[in-house]
Amino acid sequence: MADPMFEMITLAAKGYTCAQIIMLLALEQRGRENPQMIKALSGLAYGLGQGSGTCGALTGGACVLGLYAGKGQDNEQANERLPLMLEQLNLWFKEKIAKDKDGVTCAEITDNRQGAGPKMQACGQIVAETFSKVMEILEMNGIDPHAE
């Protein structure tokens, strides 16, 4: 994969949102595509569309953890470490990204409570750091982010 920050900027310029970008980067690492999933993740953008929901970078990161460690078919089980990985992501996000904020909603994270949409200059760094942390969490828990 090319530089994740460059890829992220390219994807944002194409109109993809925070959660979509995090998943697109993860899928690219695996050499996969899944347009239906990417389309579904658009529902997480801008705090579930109103700014009042959880930051899409955090929810998108949680979806990537689920992609690698969740149950997807009748004949498989979720990785027993998935709840721990989700907890690690949530704690990190609250301590690193939301430490000086009132919460983890999109509007709170981007300091935009007027409902005019996220401040993209704030979002880029949040998305990049969250993607990096998700990859770190996977590796810390014995999951290769490049494996199928």
From TrEMBL:
Pfam families with a match to the protein in the record: C_GCAxxG_C_C
SUPFAM superfamilies hit by this protein: Multiheme cytochromes
Top-level lineage group: Bacteria
NCBIfam families associated with the record: C_GCAxxG_C_C, DVU1555_fam_CGA
Protein name in the entry: C_GCAxxG_C_C family protein
